[in-house]
C-alpha cells in the first residue's frame, strides 16, 4: 500500500511538473510573440506608412492578414492593433472594387440598360458588405485592445497614450468605424454595424490632438455633426472643416478634405463638394507627408473616387486625367484637347 501510494505521488508530481513546464513554455512563447509584435509596431510599420502605393498596401494587407493574425495568435500573442491597421488597409481594396461597380451602375443607368444596372448594384452591395465588415473589424480590434491596455471606456473617457502608434491606430480605427456605419447602410445593413458608433466616435475623437493629427479628428467629428439629426446645433460644421483642412495642408495629409467632400455630398451640397475637390487639387506649394505617405495616398484615392462618382453621374465618364477640381461646365478650366461637347453627348 505504501509503495502504491509512493508511485501515485510520483505520478502526480510528474504530471504537475509537466504541466508547469508546458505552462512555462507557453508563457515564454507568448512573451516572445508579443515582443515580436511590439518590434513590428515600432520598427516595421513606420517604413510601411511611408509607402504611398495604396494598391500595394491594401493587397499586402489582404493577403497577409490571415498569416500575421493566425501566426501570432497561435503562439499566444495579441496582434489586435496590427490587425486593425491591416483591416483598414484591406478595406480600401474592397471599397475600390465597390466604387467600380457603382460606376458601372451609373453608366448602365444612363444608357437605360436595366439588367446591367441591376447586376452592378448587386455587385456593389456585396462589396460594400465586405468593406463594412473589415472596417468594423478594424474599429473593434482597436477599441478592445486600447480599452484593455489603458483601462478606459471608449467614447466615455480618454486614455493617456504612451505611444504615437497607439494614437494613430485610435484615429484610423475610429474613422474606420464611421465608414463602417455608412457602408453598412449602403449595403442594406447586411453586416449590422451598430449605429451608436457615430456618437461614441464623436466623443472619442476629442481625446487626441487635432493639430498633431492633420486636422482629421475634428474633421471626423464634423462629419458626425453633419449626418446625425440635430447634432449640428450650435456647431460651426463648415468652419471646422475649413480649419482642419488648413492644418492638413500644412502637414501634408489631406484626409480632412476627403471628409469635407463626403459631408458635402451626403447633404447634397454640390457647391461645397466642388470646393472640396478644388481645394484638394490646388494647395499652393503642397508637400505630401513623407512619414504618413500611405494615409495621404488613401486620401488621394478616396477623393478621386468621389470625383469619379460625381463626374460619371453627370457626364457618364470618370474624372479626366489631370482634371481633379475641374468640371465640364467650366470650359476654361478643362484640360487642353478635351472637348466638353463630346462628354455631354
General form? globular
End-to-end separation in angstroms reads: 102 Å
What does the radius of gyration come to? Answer: 25 Å
Query: What is the typical, i.e. mean, pLDDT?
Result: 91
Give the helix proportion (percent range): over 70%
| Tally of alpha and pi helices | 12
Number of strands: 0
Point out poorly predicted stretches.
15-23
Strand content: under 5%
Order of helices and strands: HHHHHHHHHHHH
Structural class: mainly alpha
Instruction: Please summarize the sheet with the most strands.
Output: none
Keywords for this entry:
345 residues, 12 helices, mainly alpha
Briefly say what this structure is:
The chain has 345 residues and is mainly α. Helix content is 71%, strand content 0%.
Question: Could you walk me through the main structural features you see in this protein, from its secondary elements to its overall organization?
Answer:
This protein has helices at 2-49, 54-74, 80-110, 114-150, 164-186, 197-204, 216-227, 237-251, 255-266, 270-281, 293-314, 340-344. The protein is built from 12 helices and no strands. By secondary structure, the chain is mostly helical. The model is unreliable at 15-23 (pLDDT under 50).
Amino acid at each position: 500500500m505504501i509503495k502504491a501510494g509512493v508511485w501515485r505521488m510520483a505520478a502526480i508530481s510528474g504530471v504537475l511538473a509537466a504541466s508547469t513546464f508546458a505552462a512555462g513554455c507557453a508563457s515564454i512563447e507568448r512573451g516572445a510573440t508579443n515582443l515580436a509584435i511590439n518590434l513590428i509596431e515600432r520598427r516595421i510599420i513606420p517604413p510601411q506608412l511611408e509607402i504611398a502605393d495604396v494598391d500595394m498596401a491594401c493587397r499586402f494587407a489582404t493577403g497577409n492578414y490571415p498569416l500575421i493574425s493566425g501566426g501570432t495568435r497561435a503562439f499566444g500573442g495579441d496582434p489586435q492593433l496590427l490587425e486593425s491597421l491591416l483591416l483598414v488597409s484591406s478595406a480600401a481594396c474592397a471599397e475600390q472594387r465597390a466604387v467600380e461597380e457603382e460606376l458601372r451602375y451609373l453608366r448602365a443607368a444612363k444608357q437605360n440598360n436595366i439588367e446591367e444596372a441591376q447586376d452592378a448594384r448587386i455587385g456593389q452591395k456585396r462589396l460594400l458588405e465586405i468593406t463594412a465588415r473589415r472596417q468594423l473589424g478594424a474599429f473593434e480590434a482597436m477599441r478592445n485592445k486600447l480599452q484593455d491596455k489603458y483601462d478606459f471606456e471608449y467614447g466615455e473617457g480618454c486614455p493617456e497614450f504612451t505611444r504615437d502608434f497607439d494614437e494613430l491606430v485610435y484615429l484610423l480605427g475610429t474613422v474606420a468605424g464611421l465608414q463602417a456605419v455608412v457602408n453598412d447602410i449602403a449595403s442594406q445593413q447586411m453586416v449590422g454595424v451598430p449605429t451608436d458608433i457615430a456618437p461614441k466616435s464623436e466623443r472619442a475623437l476629442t481625446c487626441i490632438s487635432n493639430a498633431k493629427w492633420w486636422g482629421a479628428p475634428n474633421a471626423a467629428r464634423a462629419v458626425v455633426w453633419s449626418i446625425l439629426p440635430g447634432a449640428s446645433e450650435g456647431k460651426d460644421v463648415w468652419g471646422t472643416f475649413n480649419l482642419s483642412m488648413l492644418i492638413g495642408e500644412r502637414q501634408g495629409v489631406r484626409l480632412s478634405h476627403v471628409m469635407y467632400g463626403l459631408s458635402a455630398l451626403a447633404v447634397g451640397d454640390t457647391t461645397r463638394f466642388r470646393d472640396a475637390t478644388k481645394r484638394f487639387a490646388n494647395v499652393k506649394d503642397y508637400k505630401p507627408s513623407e512619414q504618413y505617405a500611405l494615409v495621404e495616398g488613401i486620401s488621394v484615392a478616396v477623393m478621386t473616387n468621389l470625383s469619379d462618382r460625381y463626374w460619371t453621374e453627370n457626364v457618364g465618364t470618370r474624372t479626366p486625367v489631370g482634371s481633379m477640381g475641374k468640371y465640364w461646365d467650366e470650359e476654361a478650366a478643362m484640360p487642353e484637347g478635351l472637348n466638353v461637347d463630346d462628354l455631354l453627348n
